[in-house]
Amino acid sequence: MNPTMIPIPSAWILYLSAVLFVIGAIGVLLRRNGISIFLALELMLNSANLAFASFAFRFAGASATAAHALNGQIFIFFIIAVAAAEAAVGLALFIAMYRRKETIDVDRFNILRW
Amino acid sequence: MWADAIVTLIKLAVVIGVLLTTVPIMVWVERRGSALIQDRLGPNRVGPWGLLQPVVDAVKLITKENLIPDGVDHFLYILAPFIALAVALSTFIVVPFGQGDGLTLFGSKIHGFIVAPDLNIGILYIFALAAFGVYSIVIAGWSSNNKYSLLGGIRSSSQMISYELAMTISVVGVLMASSSFRLDQVVMAQTGTWLGFIPKWNVFPQIIGAITFMVAAFAETNRLPFDLPEAEAELVAGYHTEYSSMKFASFFMAEYINLVTSSALIVLLFFGGWTLPGLTIPHGWAGAILSLVIFAAKVAFFLWFFVWIRWTLPRFRFDQLMALGWKVMIPLAVVNFLWVGVAMALGIL
Amino acid sequence: MVTYVFLAAAALAIVFGILAIAHRSPIINVLSLVVVFFALAAIYAVLGMDFLAAIQLIVYAGAVLVLFLFVIMLLNIRSVDRLGSGRRLQAILGALTSIAIGAAVVVAIATLTPAQGAVAPGSQGGTAFPIGRSLMTTHLLPFELVSLLLVAALVGALVLARKETR
Amino acid sequence: MLGSLWIIPLLPLIGFGLNLFLGWRKARKSLVTIAGVGSVGLATIAAYWAIIGYLEQPARVIVERYFTWISAGKITVDAAFQIDPLTVVMMAFVTFVGFLIHVYSIGYMHGESDTAYARFFAYMNLFMFSMLVLVLGSSLPLMFVGWEGVGLCSYLLIGFYFEDTYCAMSGKKAFIANRIGDVGFVLGIFATFAVFGSADFTRFLPIAAAHPQQYAGWATAIGLLLFVGATGKSAQIPLYVWLPDAMAGPTPVSALIHAATMVTAGVYMVVRCNVIYRIGPAALLVVAIVGGLTAIYAASIAVAQNDIKKVLAYSTISQLGYMFLGAGVGAFAAAIFHVVTHAFFKALLFLGAGSVIHACSGNQDMRTMGGLRKVMPTTYWTFLAATLAISGIFPFAGFFSKDEILGRTFAAGASNLHGFGWLYYILWFLGITAAFITAFYMFRLVYMTFHGEFRGTEEEKHHLHESPWTMTLPLQVLGVLSIIGGFIGIPKLMTGHASWNLIEHFLDPVVIPLGTGHAAEIAAGVSEHSAGAGIEWLLLLVSLSIAVAGILVARSFYAGEHAFEKPARFVERYPLLYKLILNKYYIDEVYDKVVIQPLYRFARFCWKAIDTIIIDGVIVNGTAFMTELTGDILRFLQTGNVRNYALSVAMGVLLLIVILW
């Protein structure tokens, strides 16, 4: 029962996830608006999911570790759940921030400084 | 490999053709039905009993001036209706409308009367696309730069999200019974009868699940009594206030196609699809056509049922609507879900 | 043929990814992110992880981003700053660092031995069944913990976003 | 009593406990006397009982082990007492003289308050306990316990009148000087453990004796280290300065501790470890040289002292010099013999001086005394007997023991011991001149206090009286002992029978014969070989005539009608020399300048330079300053801008990747 092979080389998927990660990181570091930062963050999370998927996909190919191929998918499942929870709390936070300062421009919240 | 492609294309063409033709029929049925319920005549000028009225409406809408109000977020404004139509159409590829496995057309096997035969996440696909439906409404509301449409958009999306939850949980009971996402498997699980005369449809053991699913279906398609967002009295026309001509038409069509899909789902999940008690569908083309006819009859009944309900029940207030959704529908769905679990564990089901 | 699907989806994801972080209007950002998630779901499906694709669409595209849309509409953010505006140095440094990280990861990937992937065995009838079983057996604890986490997030969100009634 | 030697030291310890309790409860003097003197009396009886038991077969070593006191790795030290000829001799005179002095101090200390009286006897009992432990102890550490105990008691008793700052200071001085010596002693103990693996006399001495060459080098080192302790305890050249000031304590204390027992501990230690000193000849030589020099040096100072107790203190130092000289030339039996005889007449001299001071109501300056012969006949006659003994006049004890030592020194010179014959001749010459000076200053003392007219105030004159019987009885007993004490060590020369020289014969087993190799001859050469009968007779006559000459010179200086003219003229002719001797060669001042001041300066330097500047300044305040500085610098990192933090996080991740990879 050898698994049905799929002709996509797994390395390409990893490259895609790396690119997505970079785009997400640039989004997080360069945007000033809280919500856009959050969006970019979701993108980074998804790139991580993709990386997991690619490794699950790779291992599914190698018969030795085929049994654990599912673990990769299950982990993505949990990441999605966590991301959802995080988004909920984050957005609630932004609403509270907005209520306080009428803006969610991150640079305006700098009371923490010296 | 090419044969499959052609077969799928033919199926696709058939499905879209059927759907698009049912829309004017439904419009007509709607108008005549509402007239019948409200004891008035309804359209009868154009064509016999007003049959051509929908065609005339269509022509009217298409020829109207494609008006785009200024201050509107141009790109989104145009995008919204297309999303609605695309989502509505593409949900149907998973719906099997007849028992057609083993049939061959021009020498190549058509894998049953279903557009995407072995997509084994069937119902999940439908829920995914249902989720996308929300986007069209939200964007429409947002981009038409109008307070009423914005409010309408937000209200309808929150309504759809809460009822989507209820719908999903109620369906889980059915999936447990048929232990597969694929709708044709669900139908297969409902063949045969108990004690000779009661057909093994899911509706009888899971009556609560069936009711919650139907109510949720009403909410999903924004049909009365849940059509608060585009209620004329309340928010002018809800999210598609600013839309006119072809854009409005596509919203209108999307709504009716969703209606057809929902009723098809109700039939498939709870009323045994194309099975009738005591009747075994013979193989081959004759059996296929027979199953198609039975399935169509049931769907037609439920289409009428939607129209019938629309013109009898009064509209919910928004907070009642949300309260019903969260505090009644979801608990009921969970109860049904538990009941099915226990029943299966005890071997009743 | 499958690789073409993958390449198309990848291109789609990258283009809309850039759009998702660059565009000034948050709505466009969210929508382009929806398209990215759609593309990712397509990739998962191609890789044989159909249940995951469905979940990705339902949960991510269907629920999380709708939430984002909600908040954007609630806060009525018409348009937002340009990418990298304000604190010039910070922007440049940020871009450089992320690109450097990306480069490092890419180099690391390059060292990986190329291997041919495959559909997870035993998932011929769809990956839903095996995932469901393992969730309920081997991965029961994380499953319960995640449920706990979600409840906590729910309560948290409520408390934070509630209007100060007192 | 042989089976349980531990009773002997235990009795004075119980006495000490009782007295403390009585002192605390402010009990009557009579109770304290019973407890104090009674316990020492019982101890003496127990000691003599053990001695008699032992004498059935003398010349054997009995070791009684009670419990393991220290066990650390390979090293184990048992609490064990040992009895052998040397212990017998020491125990005999320590307990007997101690008891007599306790009886004497009943009368002497009568004037004190009840609590002080009790405190005095408590300390005296504690001293007896420590001395007995020192003598009975069968290993160096146990002996060290006694060693420290006696040091402590000497401090407590010297500083008995602690209200008077001078007494307190001299107590402290005595203790510190002893401690300095003890450092050497402790190092010696450690060295013994290191080299021999055990410090029990019955173990490490035989090992050393068995192969002398192998341990020669180490033995010299250990010998010298232990001798440093001895100089501290027995007041020899470098560390003797505390003894003259120790006279600040009550006189019975000076008699017991600073004449008879404690100061002889050093000599006992050297004789006990004679094997170590014999296989390490250099150490023995040092002992002899230090002994000789101290004898002549202390005697020269005693000549010019006017305080009666100071004279006796310096005379004790000089007599101890003799004992170490005797031990130094290998005549261990002679050294112990002199220890015993010295204990008798020196205790008597001190007690006599005590009753004189008692009579002159506390005045110690001889210049204001005189003519006490008529008033205190018993004190005078016993004092005279002791003076004759110390000067070495024929029938008295001093003659035999001192002459024995001088004889042996001369014999060592003759037999060119260790190749340093000429050195021993010089030491013998020093010994003889010291004997002459001893005779001179002793009779100077007698004439100034007992002969001539009373030079004190009228009021003192009325007060003069003979001491009560409790004081004079011990004087008489010690007087008899000073006279007949010499005969226990009568040389073969006079009697023709070696066996009659009891003490010589008795102490032979202590001097373990050495193993093979050249060391054996040295030992043999020293003990038997003497310079032939003729020379011995000559030596006897020489020392006797020297003593008589000393007495005559003293008489001409200090007795008769024109007494005190000659000394006055001497002072005019050599004022410088006189002042030098009077002020004890300014040794205290020299020590002060050479040792104490630099020490203070170094301490102040440590305090000012190291402590304040380096420790406080650099380390403590320095770190505080550094933290504050870095705090200030780092403060600017916290810009408060969320995106900065995000950036730094990203950079961190990058760094991490680079590093991990």
CA(first)-CA(last) distance of chain C: 62 Å
Number of domains of chain B: 1
Give the DSSP E fraction of chain B (strand runs of 2 or more residues). Answer: under 5%
Task: Identify the overall geometry of chain C.
Answer: globular
- How far is it from the N-terminal to the C-terminal residue of chain B, by CA? 41 Å
Counting helices, strands and paired strands, the structural category of chain B is: mainly alpha
CATH architecture of the largest domain in chain C: Up-down Bundle
CATH homology-level superfamily of the largest domain in chain C:
NADH-ubiquinone/plastoquinone oxidoreductase chain 6, subunit NuoJ
Series of H and E elements of chain C: HHHHEHH
Averaged pLDDT of chain B:
82
List the domain count of chain C as a whole number. 2
The main pleated sheet of chain B reads as:
2 strands, antiparallel
From the alpha-carbon coordinates, what is the Rg of chain C to the nearest angstrom?
A: 20 Å
Number of helices of chain B: 11
Broad CATH class of the largest domain in chain C: Mainly Alpha
What is the gist of this entry?
Chain C is mainly α and 166 residues long. Chain C has 6 helices and 1 strand, in the order ααααβαα.
Structural account:
- The complex is a heterotetramer of chains A (114), B (349), C (166) and D (661).
- Chain B contains 11 helices and 4 strands.
- Chain B is mainly alpha-helical and 349 residues long.
- Chain B has one domain.
- Chain B starts with a helix and ends with a helix.
- Chain C folds into 2 domains: 2-119, NADH-ubiquinone/plastoquinone oxidoreductase chain 6, subunit NuoJ (Four Helix Bundle (Hemerythrin (Met), subunit A)), CATH 1.20.120.1200; 123-166.
- The model of chain C has no long low-confidence stretch (mean pLDDT 85).
- A two-stranded antiparallel ribbon of chain D has the order 1-2.
- In chain D, strand 1 (62-72) and strand 2 form a beta hairpin.
- Chain D has 661 residues and is mainly alpha-helical.
- Chain D has helices at residues 7-25, 29-55, 85-108, 114-136, 140-158, 165-196, 201-210, 212-233, 242-246, 251-260, 265-272, 274-279, 281-302, 308-328, 332-359, 372-375, 377-391, 397-414, 421-450, 458-463, 469-484, 492-495, 502-506, 518-527, 532-558, 565-573, 575-582, 587-635, 642-660; strands at residues 62-72, 75-83.
- In chain D, helix 1 packs antiparallel against helix 4 (114-136), helix 2 runs antiparallel to helix 3 (85-108) and helix 13 (281-302) runs parallel beside helix 19.
- Chain D has 29 helices and 2 strands.
- Chains A and C meet through strand 1, helix 1, helix 2 and helix 3 of A and helix 1, helix 2, helix 3, helix 4 and strand 1 of C.
- Strand 1 of chain A pairs antiparallel with strand 1 (116-118) of chain C, so a sheet runs across the interface.
